[in-house]
């Protein structure tokens, strides 16, 4: 049984969250479409219910206490969860909403072209996508699942392997025409473009060619998309996963070098919080991905 004192009404919590977010009762009032006096009264009621102050009053300014800031982070997550649940209930009567965190390149070049088939097979499900380059805490982000590169080591999460990453070195046709690459030694003339999240990629590539890894020099990127465009523009040689390399090679913007499709340093995984494991839209998406991969 919940104690009423510790379950304040949504109106009280919304006023508190708005003041924290906007910095004043007047800005919060505009945000909530209320009067400033109403927001002030709601704050006072919340403080009375909790039995301790949330703000220090100093020259007509509200300064949140350290405890209030910590409390506010939890309240923001709770309000976001309530909003999300209400949106799912009201907007998708037959299916539900799947909120998915994706890697930018994989999401746009591999998942997006296939996603139509999933939506056709499950017309009641809405899929919301947002990019995340690095892993995050499912407790602080409102995602049902994420597509992640690396190994199956997310804490308190379920994992399903999609496929291993395989890499191909790619160069623009114009750049290759200037200085053809016939063997490993010819690469010394070029910038070897690098990705922040694949620090050992070139080492693995050289080993797969039967060569001793060399000191890599070249531009550093945080996303495959920008590195791919740099290679197309002739700024160097890019080491790309095959799902990207095959597209660029097939359309003539890049061409492969030496041994193709070498084994990379990790795999792509679908991961999800255990609390969402049996959520129907996620189960449907997981089963569909298993068939696709």
Notable traits:
single chain, two-stranded antiparallel ribbon, seven-stranded mixed sheet, 3 domains, D-Maltodextrin-Binding Protein, domain 2, Arc Repressor Mutant, subunit A, elongated, 11 strands, 293 residues, alpha/beta
Distance between the termini: 46 Å
**Mean pLDDT across all residues, rounded?**
88
CATH topology of the largest domain: the name is D-Maltodextrin-Binding Protein, domain 2
The CATH superfamily of the largest domain is known as Periplasmic binding protein-like II
CATH architecture of the largest domain: 3-Layer(aba) Sandwich
The tally of domains stands at 3
In the CATH scheme, the class of the largest domain would be Alpha Beta
Give structural notes.
It is a single chain. The chain is of the alpha/beta class and 293 residues long. The protein has three domains: 4-90, Winged helix-like DNA-binding domain superfamily/Winged helix DNA-binding domain (Arc Repressor Mutant, subunit A, Orthogonal Bundle); 94-163 and 267-292, Periplasmic binding protein-like II (D-Maltodextrin-Binding Protein, domain 2), CATH 3.40.190; 166-262, 3-Layer(aba) Sandwich (D-Maltodextrin-Binding Protein, domain 2), CATH 3.40.190.10. It contains ten helices and eleven strands. The protein has helices spanning 10-22, 25-32, 36-50, 66-91, 104-121, 173-178, 201-208, 224-232, 242-250, 280-292, and strands spanning 55-58, 61-64, 96-102, 125-131, 145-150, 157-171, 194-195, 220-221, 238-241, 255-256, 262-273. Strand 1 and strand 2 form a beta hairpin. The model has no long low-confidence stretch (mean pLDDT 88).
